[in-house]
Design brief:
heterodimer, A: mainly alpha, 0% strand, B: mainly alpha, two-stranded antiparallel ribbon, 2 strands, 58% helix
């Protein structure tokens, strides 16, 4: 069987491939961190709660495990994204800034709206997980808007 | 802002990935600039001008020339 040789990559294409590879490694590493957090929380929870759920306050962990998971969460939600933020180009930085703005705006507007609606007899009282979800969903929605509409 | 990036790239038979690598940006950034969805920063515009060995105003046109 004759094997076709690949056409030689130009210097720019090679660098682009390296960039894509770095991004894939970054996403893979972030997924592993997420998996480790989920596995630790699931394996060591002595209560009935879930970390990302309205029953988060029923979560019961040993102090040592709690510190390890808190460290991993800080790494996964703060250190890793901030590191990634320094590596991306200006287009993706713009998109990420819009995403973070969307998340912050969702909480700034969403929490007081939720509070007054609750005061008026609509729905449950604001709770921490709900506020976190406001930020998260606001961020994702703003990112998708920036990615496909702007 | 209009630009001639796609034409200049085609003249050199470069793919978007090739140009992106030479500019140290993502392929998506090159595509966004070519389609007018993203205006490059001044530092990136200078890098583009240097790469093509042309003045910035010969590549980018804000439609406001006197």
């Amino acid at each position: 069987m004759i094997r076709k040789s690949r056409p030689a990559l130009g210097p720019g294409e090679a660098r682009s491939r390296q960039r894509d590879m770095r991004q894939a490694l970054y996403i893979g590493f972030a997924a592993i961190i997420g998996g480790v957090i989920g596995a630790l929380t699931g394996a060591f929870d002595r209560g009935e709660g879930h970390l990302f759920g309205t029953d988060w306050d029923k979560l019961e962990l040993d102090p040592g495990i709690a510190i390890v998971i808190a460290g991993l969460l800080g790494f996964g939600f703060a250190v890793l994204p901030l590191y990634g933020f320094r590596r991306i180009d200006e287009l993706k930085r713009d998109q990420n800034l819009i995403a973070f703005t969307g998340g912050a705006t969702a909480v700034l507007a969403g929490f007081p709206m939720w509070a007054v609606l609750h005061a008026g007899g609509f729905g449950a009282a604001p709770h921490p997980f709900g506020v976190w979800m406001l930020a998260f969903v606001g961020m994702i929605a703003a990112y998708l808007y920036a990615r496909w509409r702007l | 802002m209009k630009n001639r990036l796609k034409v200049l790239r085609a003249e050199r038979d470069w793919s978007q990935a090739e140009l992106a690598g030479r500019l140290d940006v993502s392929r998506q950034a090159v595509n966004a600039i070519e389609t007018g969805k993203h205006d490059p920063s001044l530092p990136l515009a200078f890098r583009i001008a240097r790469l093509f060995d042309m003045p910035i105003e010969d590549i980018f046109d804000d439609g406001d020339a006197a």
